[in-house]
Amino acid sequence: MAGTGPAKNAEMDLNLCRVFIDIAEAKSLTRAAERSGMTRSNVSRRLRALETEMGAQLLRRTTRNVELTQAGQLLYRRCLAMMEELQRARDAIHQLRSTVSGEVGVRVPTGFGHFYLKPLILGFCREHPDIRLRLLINDRMADLVASKVDLAVQITSAPLDDLVATRLCDVRWQCVATPACLQALEQSLGRPLSAPADLLQARLILPLAMGGRLAWLAGSGDDGAAALDVLPSLQSGDYRLLYDAVLDGLGLALLPDYVTSAALASGTLVAVLDQVVFSGLGNAMYLVRMPDRQPTMAARAFQQFLREAIVTAAPSWQAGAEEAGADLSS
């Protein structure tokens, strides 16, 4: 029985604390009821519940007033401290919200920025009107300091050693085409596509940053890497253009899963050589910053936004790719 008091005390309703503070300071159940906006009977009932919970008499009633017992004085000090601490927490949170302001420089890759992030960033700007966002959408990572970039999203297999990098999710690069485009290519070959070398016979649509080299993993480890020199029919840093081109049946495109997943899941596009792990521009997405630049509250807010948005969405990108692969193998 001795051990039950502290446990109940730890779970005590804060509303009972407020009522007891009113009683202790008003020195009258009637005046306490007026202060708290309750009826006197309600205050009395709560006092009895609190004394039952504490297992001690908290008030000593006189003809005119009520006085705190020793237990009541102890509880009053503790309740007062709890309410003051709660108010300090409220004030700190209010201060935290009010200081989320200032300028944040952000760099995101061309494809990811144009194809996926832009509507989300507009939503962030609406929620944080005091943050001034400098958004750079390009594929250059040369000098974050000179560009005044606080945070950057990078798609790579190996972040630079002099950057603080946080891995957000995997990125899978897929060769895709419309069903009609793939069927026409296989008819011209006289057989299904079976190896990356067959892509030399296709019209290829590639991101500009890839140049004219198509790479993939032919086995395990670095020794399993292989590559093929190709002459793309269309290249651009505008991933929406590349996506529209492949939807229009202009060729086979190599694109990341966040671009292709929905079209693969719906059957609008089909995976080509799905068993091949193409290297693309990197197999993971990272959030990076300079190690000597501590993020401001505004930068922290945007960093949290980016992490939550990307980590939440990534499973749906990968699920679309997996469903497409399962359909091909069935």
Account of the 3D structure:
It is a single chain. With 330 residues, the protein is of the alpha/beta class. It has 10 helices and 15 strands. The chain has helices at residues 4-10, 14-26, 29-36, 40-54, 70-98, 110-127, 179-189, 239-247, 257-266, 297-329, and strands at 59-61, 66-68, 102-108, 131-137, 151-156, 164-170, 173-177, 204-207, 213-217, 225-229, 234-236, 252-256, 270-272, 277-278, 284-289. The strands form 4 sheets. It has a 5-stranded mixed β-sheet. Strands 11-8-12-7-13 form a 5-stranded mixed β-sheet. It has a 3-stranded antiparallel β-sheet with strand order 10-9-14, with no helix packed on it. Helix 6 links the parallel strand 3 (102-108) and strand 4. Helix 2 (14-26) crosses helix 5 (70-98). The protein is elongated. Residues 1-10 have low confidence and may be disordered.
- Sheet-strand content, in percent, reads 15-25%
Unreliably modeled segments: 1-10
Give the integer mean of the pLDDT values.
85
Structural class call reads alpha/beta
The percent range for helix content is 40-55%
Count up the helices.
10
Write the H/E string, N to C. HHHHEEHEHEEEEHEEEEHEHEEEH
Radius of gyration: 32 Å
Strand order of the largest sheet: 4-3-5-15-6
Question: How many DSSP E strands?
Answer: 15
Q: Describe the biggest sheet?
A: 5 strands, mixed
Distance between the termini: 65 Å
Shape, principal axes of CA atoms: elongated
Main features:
about 325 residues; alpha/beta; five-stranded mixed sheet; 15 strands; elongated; disordered N terminus
